[in-house]
């Protein structure tokens, strides 16, 4: 079971945009985990734990009209995520905290005629 949320703020012009993004997530794990290739009595393994992360991203891109009905959006972003992970697997406590570099690339094709056909 977990929780995730994010906030985004930015500026958009006729063809280009830039935005900042904040994200937070927290997830808990409780259950049995099967380890492939290992049978009973070692598998399944009882495991529990949680992970928590906070991230910051900066995204930028452009929206380009190809025709009156179609457009393409392309963009990229980069940032950092601080992640804390702790698990108890068969009585062994494993904990780790690290700040990770993250990136994303995105692409979208929009065709207003196709949208009209599917309504």
Report on the architecture of this protein.
With about 120 residues, the chain is mainly beta. It has one domain (about 1-115). Helix content is about 5%, strand content about 75%. It has one helix at about 110-115, and strands spanning about 1-10, 15-35, 45-65, 70-90, 90-110. The protein has a five-stranded antiparallel beta sheet with strand order 1-2-3-4-5. It is elongated and about 65 Å long. The mean pLDDT is about 85.
Provide the fold topology.
Layout: E1 2-12, E2 16-33, E3 45-65, E4 70-89, E5 92-111, H1 112-117
Antiparallel strand pairs: 1-2, 2-3, 3-4, 4-5
Uncertain runs are none
First CA to last CA: what distance? 35 Å
Q: What is the ordering of alpha helices and beta strands?
A: EEEEEH
Number of domains: 1
DSSP strand (E) fraction? over 45%
Computed over alpha carbons, the radius of gyration is 21 Å
**Main β-sheet, in a few words?**
5 strands, antiparallel
Average of pLDDT: 87
The total of helices stands at 1
Q: Which structural category do the helix and sheet elements fall into?
A: mainly beta
- According to DSSP, the number of beta strands is 5
Q: What is the overall shape?
A: elongated
Helix coverage percent:
under 10%
Strand order of the largest sheet: 1-2-3-4-5
